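Weekly puzzle thread! Below is a chain. First person to post its structure in token form gets bragging rights.
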Amino acid sequence: MSISNGIGSLPALSNSVTPASQTAPAGKDQQVKTTAVTPPTTAKVNQADDQAVISSTSGLLTQALSASDVRLYKVLPLQAAIASGDYNVSSSAVSDKIITSLTS
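Winning reply:
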């Protein structure tokens, strides 16, 4: 397939263009007319028509997402007990939790 035949099933859309050097020179009685192509006009957009309304719910959502999930009133005493070596877990409590998690 060649470009001159077209692309796929579409025929070639290009027109033949003759360079200016190959055309007959314009005499005094011949004039070359040119036309300016103007782009299509677009409708003006009124910027006052666009609005955004943010509800009070967005403030609550922002506050909830920025809050931490960590309950420090529970974590801090445990950290202190572990750091001092006073935190002990009974082996029966650990085994009970393991069995419960496997049967659930």
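Puzzle host: Confirmed. Bonus trivia for everyone else. The mean pLDDT is 73.
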